[in-house]
Design a protein that fits this description.
Blueprint: H1 7-38, E1 43-50, H2 53-62, H3 69-75, E2 80-86, H4 89-100, E3 106-112, E4 125-135, E5 138-150, H5 151-163, H6 173-203
Parallel strand pairs: 2-5
Antiparallel strand pairs: 1-2, 3-4, 4-5
Bound molecules: ligand 0O2.
């Protein structure tokens, strides 16, 4: 039977949709509250997505796991993904703190790919969170990935994605070196913008 026809898959998707809505709502509340208290909106834009089955199965295959609903639940922790794109570097860390302080999710893992970028040059702050969903008497926890990055990092990641990320084996060293160099240049810009922003805040 095809995965999509299995009752376990349909139940999984129902729960994942509840969790995605819950995560989106709770993050919006946290960010609106922050904006109200600070009088400043650190967010340029937010994107929420459910990973396609095709992409999730590809990830399982790459990791050497068989295609099953159980493995989708246990091994693919970014079926639900939220990307928060902010203006300045300090905004990324403020939002990380905000999420850490929230009682609405449990943080399972953090990856600071800003201070420790990936080999490709990819920079972002990742949080894997457990989102509680209430089903009658029971509470279940669904994993989701929150990526937090600056607009500059988002610009890089988006073009890198198009240039090479999904087709790594066919990409020349020239492109790999080029994108890595761009990542460094972009990070320099982030640091410059941050120092201008700090200057402005200190003059207030
Ligand atoms: P998509 O299409 O964006 O959803 P791990 O299991 O921890 O060894 P994994 O699962 O790759 O490794 O997790 P990781 O490394 O924390 O990163 C997951 C996501 O970060 C990716 O999701 C991308 O969104 C993004 N990412 C990581 N590296 C790169 C990169 O080099 N370039 C770009 N553009 N994005 C990157 P998916 O599912 O791979 O892709």
């Amino acid at each position: 039977m095809k995965i999509t026809e299995q009752p376990e898959y349909q139940e999984m998707m129902l729960k994942y949709n509840f969790a995605m809505q819950r995560l989106e709502t709770e993050l919006n509340i946290l960010l609106k509250e922050y904006e109200y208290k600070k009088g400043y909106n650190p967010v340029e834009h937010i994107k929420t997505r459910m990973k396609s089955l095709e992409s999730a199965l590809k990830k399982l295959e790459e990791k050497g796991y068989e295609a099953s609903v159980d493995n989708l639940v246990r091994k693919v922790y970014d079926m639900i993904g939220v990307r928060i794109v902010c203006s300045f570097l300090s905004d990324v860390y403020d939002i990380v703190e905000l999420i850490r302080g929230s009682k609405q999710f449990i943080i399972k893992r953090e990856n600071n790919y800003i201070d420790y970028p990936k080999e490709s040059g990819y920079r972002s702050y990742h949080l894997i969170v457990l989102v509680p969903i209430h089903l009658g008497e029971r509470t279940e926890y669904i994993e989701a990935e929150i990526q937090i990055r600056t607009v500059a990092m988002d610009f890089w990641a988006s073009l890198d994605h198009k240039l090479r990320y999904k087709i790594v084996d066919r990409v020349s060293d020239e492109i790999k070196m080029g994108t890595l160099e761009c990542s460094r240049d972009i990070y320099e810009l982030d640091l410059k913008m941050q120092s201008l922003y700090d200057l402005l805040k200190n003059n207030d």
